[in-house]
UniProtKB/TrEMBL annotation:
The lineage of its organism: Bacteria, Bacillati, Bacillota, Clostridia, Eubacteriales. It comes from Alkalibacter saccharofermentans DSM 14828. InterPro entries: Acyl_CoA_acyltransferase (IPR016181), BcerS-like (IPR039968). This is N-acetyltransferase domain-containing protein. It comes from the Bacteria.
């Protein structure tokens, strides 16, 4: 018999975080999350999103064995901003047994309904920087450090549960040429000259730190109208800076500023950590950090995480400046790059990759259901 148990102890939280590693054991496409980060994100005492979010976690058990997990989240900033009483589900995984999925979603839906929610959508996290979107195609492609992997039966079960598509994100794999395409070079030089912009390069992380608040302010403003986005608080900015600064390589952080050092655009990439995370099973210790250090120092693949442009410079081609700067990375022999999920209706972002040979290799979806 399937039982759902609310997570209330540290042991149960560790069980919640470790379940996907057991579920996908031996799967060559699954890339585990960093366990220490997920434990922190799901701990309401550590995650600053708890100031405007309330959440619960559940495990599904069958004869004492964990067979599934789910989180339900109410983001009150989202409700205030978008005017929708819509709760979220996320961090959801289950064995190939419809009764398990049914039990998990039933308990999550009941709790959200008790709080006055009239819809549920997801998978989503506490904010847009958390993993989101259920894979609906590309199951035979290796996941990335920042995205969710799931089995093909997941979307089948979602439809049986009465969920329908809300939005989709597309992911691409692009070829990185040794020399930037001529048109990219031309557009980049034109934009820099005509708008009095320049690229900032950094040798050390400490030189980058003063610009981090500006980067997050630009994320807040340029991403504001995107699906389910809520602006990050100062405490969240501090939290995510500490969480991800370890992985930043200054060669992969590109900032474009005007004559007064105001941030016009930025791009963030990193050497692919997919293989390293698979080898260390999402754990830094005892030797996982060595695999990560190796991947950060020597790699032929990258993950392009974020590009943001100030509204003042949209439609100027400043994206080309960022792309050219990333391509011209001399310290790494990057030949392929995985692009982070891009909303299906975000054509300005999706079309910026026209300078490169690219393949649409994955699609992920947010589902929605009335309660």
């Amino acid at each position: 018999m399937i039982k759902t148990i609310e997570v209330s102890t540290k042991k149960q939280l560790r069980d919640f975080v470790s379940f996907p590693k057991k579920l996908y054991s031996g799967n060559p496409y699954y890339v585990p999350r960093l366990a220490i980060d997920e434990l922190s994100t799901l701990n309401t005492d550590k995650n600053p999103a708890s100031e405007h979010c309330t959440s619960k976690l559940w495990l599904a058990k069958d004869n004492g064995v964990t067979v599934g997990r789910i989180a339900a989240i109410v983001n009150y900033k989202y409700i205030e901003k978008w005017g929708l009483n819509t709760g979220r589900f996320g961090y959801v995984d289950f064995i190939e047994d419809f009764k398990v999925a049914e039990a998990l979603f039933q308990v999550a839906q009941n709790w959200l309904k008790s709080l006055g929610m009239d819809q549920i959508h997801g998978p989503l996290g506490f904010c847009d920087l958390d993993p989101e979107g259920m894979l609906v195609s590309g199951f035979d492609k290796t996941s990335t450090f920042t995205t969710i992997y799931n089995f093909p039966y997941y979307p089948v079960f979602m439809e049986r549960l009465g969920f329908t598509k809300d939005v989709e994100w597309y992911e691409y794999e692009i070829d990185i040429p040794r020399v930037p395409p001529a048109i990219l070079e031309k557009v980049s030089n034109h934009v820099l000259t005509n708008h009095n912009l320049r690229i900032l390069n950094f040798d050390k992380k400490r030189d980058l730190k003063p610009f981090i608040p500006k980067v997050f302010r630009l994320i807040n403003s340029s991403y504001s109208d995107l699906y389910a986005v809520t602006e990050l608080s100062d405490k969240q900015i501090e939290y995510y800076t500490k969480q991800y600064l370890f992985f930043f390589k200054t060669d992969f952080v590109k900032l474009v500023v005007d004559g007064d050092d105001n941030l016009a655009a930025f791009g963030l990439a990193l050497p692919s950590l997919a293989k390293a995370m698979q080898k260390c099973h999402g754990r830094l210790f005892p030797f996982g950090f060595l695999q990560i250090f190796k991947a950060l120092k020597q790699n032929d693949r990258a993950e392009l995480l974020l590009i943001a442009v100030d509204t003042k410079y949209k439609k100027t081609g400043v994206n080309a400046v960022i792309l050219k700067a990333i391509v011209q990375n001399k310290k790494y022999n990057i030949t392929k790059a995985d692009l982070n999920p891009q909303l299906e209706n975000n054509l300005p972002v999706r079309t910026q990759w026209r300078y490169f040979d690219s393949v649409h290799n994955k699609t992920r979806r947010s589902y929605i259901k009335k309660l």
